[in-house]
Amino acid sequence: MKKLFFVAMAAVAMTFGSCTDNKPAPVVEPEQEEIEVISTDSLATVLEAADSTQLGSLLQTVQEQIENLKNVDPAKAKEYLANVQAFLKENAEKIKAVVGTGTIASLVDQVTSLPEIEVPDVVDAAQEAVEGAAADVADKAAEAAEGAKEAVTEKVEEVKDAANEKVQDAKDAAANAVDNAADKLKGAIGR
To answer: 99: which of 52, 66, 150, 187 fits an S-S bond (Cβ 3.0–4.6 Å)?
Structure first.
């Protein structure tokens, strides 16, 4: 009985031993390339100089920077676009006086009418990542528990088989002892 108890305790110890504190590695975000943007002060300086060619060049660069920022840092792109659009709307009369109508005027209209940039919901993305990690951990824990359960069941079966063998051996030995005693008793009575 003690052997069965020790085997069961060993199986329980193995079960707890397989449950290590496996924490997932912290997520390291790649370093983001810092994209320099044209300030509205630069646009104001060019506007004051009444240089329509330079203003057109700056606005093309602004469009490119917004597109680049959308991929790298949507929140910064949204803020930058809002600042540029506010500047263009506030200075619409000065801009029309400098550029008139034509290619640069249509470029100003394009930048002014760019749609608002959608910023992904970081909380939802983080929650999805946590749920995915939790599901992985739960799956691995279930697999480990199932493996431990199988190991314990196997050990219990081995102990049962060994105990049954010992019981059978004891029964056989007792039966032989009874047979021997009966034979001796018969021999003693038959004399």
So the answer is: 52
CA 67 → CA 26, 32, 117, distances in Å? 30, 15, 10
**How many C-beta neighbours within 10 Å does residue 42 have?**
14
Calculate mean pLDDT across residues 167-189. Answer: 85
Kindly tell me if the per-residue pLDDT of 27 is higher than 60.
Answer: no
> Rounded CA gap, 161 and 135, in Å?
39
Token digits of residue 120: 């992904």
Alpha helices in the chain (DSSP H): 2-17, 40-48, 52-72, 74-90, 92-99, 103-112, 122-189
Question: Which is higher by pLDDT, 101 or 132?
Answer: 132
The reported pTM is 0.44
Length of the chain: 191
